[in-house]
Amino acid sequence: MPRHLCRRCHLHPNICVCDHCSAVPNQTPLTVLQHPSEVGRSKGTLRILEQCLTRLQVFVGETPAEFRQAGLGDNFPLAGTAVLFPGADSQALEEADLQGIHHWVLLDGTWRKAAKLLHLNRRIGELPRYHFAAPPPSRYVIRKAPGDHHLATAEAAGHLLQHLEPGLDTGPIHAAMAALVARQLAQIPAPLRERYR
User: Which of 117, 152, 185 is closest to 44 using CA atoms?
Assistant: First the structure.
């Protein structure tokens, strides 16, 4: 008997969170470069942003050639664009003058693969980079991160937009994230569930 999958996210209803996603009318455009290994992952958070944000572009690839094939051409706006990703040469976003930045790039992948995206795509890697000096604690307990201050893609986007657009209600992103974690945890046998708390 075939499984009935959600028509929007193509996931099983037990882990689908589409019912928690609603529009977040962000004025600041975001572009996400997604590593191919993240496509279709049931624990991925990018699909939340795809359903919530009104100004979002997603390109899947690893190398410049793959991103060009996905539609990220040489006309990608570099002026006024910055990357949200921590590193030795990144600036604390909360303390920076961001007036000249009108467009943000986020990376979706494991931390190692996200760093590789920057390394392989020099045009993106040479853009100004920022990180959160004091991010909120991540609630994304279902996937391992290098440290407590690292956020999932949807969490990072939500926190970024809260900083850039203080009047914007990013609640739908956080609600969908909470639902994603709860539904994924519900699939884990009870004796093993506590290790994720």
Answer: 152
Please write the tens of the pLDDT for every residue from 107-162.
Answer: 999 889 999 999 999 999 999 999 999 888 888 776 565 555 679 999 999 999 99
d(CA 22, CA 123): 33
Write the pLDDT tens digit of every residue in 23-50.
Answer: 999 999 999 999 999 887 777 889 999 9
Give the Cα-Cα-Cα angle 7, 13, 18 (nearest 5 degrees).
60
Provide the H-helix boundaries in the chain: 46-52, 64-69, 111-120, 122-125, 153-164, 171-186, 190-193
- Cα end-to-end distance, the chain, whole Å: 35
Please, which residues have CB within 8 angstroms of residue 120's CB and are 6 or more apart in sequence?
A: 62, 63, 64
pTM: 0.88
Packed helices 171-186 and 153-164: angle between N→C axes, nearest 10 degrees = 160
